[in-house]
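User: Please go through the entry that follows and flag anything odd:
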Amino acid sequence: MNTSATPTRSAPAEGPGARGGRTTPRLDALVDGVREAVGRGLPPDLTAYLVAERIAPFLGTAGLLTAEQREDHPDRYRQHVLHAETDGSFSVVALVWRPGQCTPVHDHVSWCVTGVHEGEESERRYRLVPDGTTAHLVATEDVLNPTGAVCGFAPPGDIHRVRNAGTTTAISIHVYGADVVRLGSSVRRVYPSPDGE
């Protein structure tokens, strides 16, 4: 049986609501690399590709995040805004996941790059299939992203669910082509979970 997948607007994600707090030299270098890639003004898919190249060398390295930026939340994954460019062109956040924590099925307001800094994340990707006057989600791929894995994407075709299916804390670095401080979230829409999930 197909589940109607008419999307709804999401609530703002958790975060400090600041343009970025304390920083480290390694984080400053990561932001500089992202700024250079975004500053080229290329189409979203190419920008995501270049940003992925820039953040990959920083994943899994010591000294990227402060102790505060590594803090989790007992009930849900926690978002720490690391940097939001003053012109709104991009934001960098760290997501910290305890085992079992996950996102709803969602898509995004802009291009996005994710890189696993610590632990591993499980991702299920979906495609929205027209079904008369409605549509339903079809799972297209399950991906296990270990430490160092990087992926980039741009709407449309960016519907997924992410979870920490491991037994230890996972931390991922996300770069969005939008100002998440102003918007409150990188999520455009949340979709009902397909039957059986």
Remarks:
- Residues 1-18 have pLDDT under 50 and may be disordered.
- The radius of gyration is 16 Å.
